[in-house]
Amino acid sequence: PSFLKGPMTAYAEGEGLDISLFLAILAKLGLTKEHFERPMESMSPGQQKKILIAASLAKPAHLYIYDEPLNYLDIISRAQLEKVILTYQPTMLFVEHDAVFLEKVATRRIEMHPFG
Q1: What are the boundaries of each domain within the chain?
Q2: Residue 23 banded pLDDT, cuts 50, 70, 90
Q3: In the 8-state DSSP scheme, what is residue 41?
């Protein structure tokens, strides 16, 4: 997320996002109006991760592919992400090692084991 700079609204416009949907998802992820007015580079890695997740979910897609979406997120943010995924129910393929998150969110699991 180190490339995130400037105001969130400018980022959303540059990405072609529906600003209302983007901000609604961010609100569900726990960002407040104060966050919307701050430059993105001043935010924590967890807050920046939320911006990227919200931007992804605000774009129409048939399939979302996430690699370890819980990285940089605290426990409260993880619960908020679970709620967003359960609310919007996107079709997702994700790699994640958090068993509790998988239990709550995943509908199917593919377990991979190293050769040996």
Answers
A1: 8-105
A2: very high
A3: G
Q: What is the CATH number assigned to the segment(s) 8-105? A: 3.40.50.300
Q: Which two tokens stand for residue 23?
A: 């901000």
Separation between Cα atoms, residue 85 and residue 105, nearest integer Å: 7
What's the chain's Rg over C-alpha atoms? 15
pLDDT value at residue 116: 63
Supply the pTM of this predicted model.
Answer: 0.82
3-state per-residue secondary structure call for 50-111: HHHHHHHHHCCCCCEEEECCCCCCCHHHHHHHHHHHHHHCCCEEEECCCHHHHHHHCCCCCC
Q: What is the mean pLDDT of the chain?
A: 90
Can you tell me the distance from the alpha carbon of 21 to that of 96, in angstroms, rounded to the nearest whole number? 26
Find how far residue 72's CA is from the centre of its chain. Answer: 11
Residue with tokens 């967003």, as numbered in its chain? 84
pLDDT per residue as tens digits for the range 25-48: 899 888 988 888 899 999 999 899
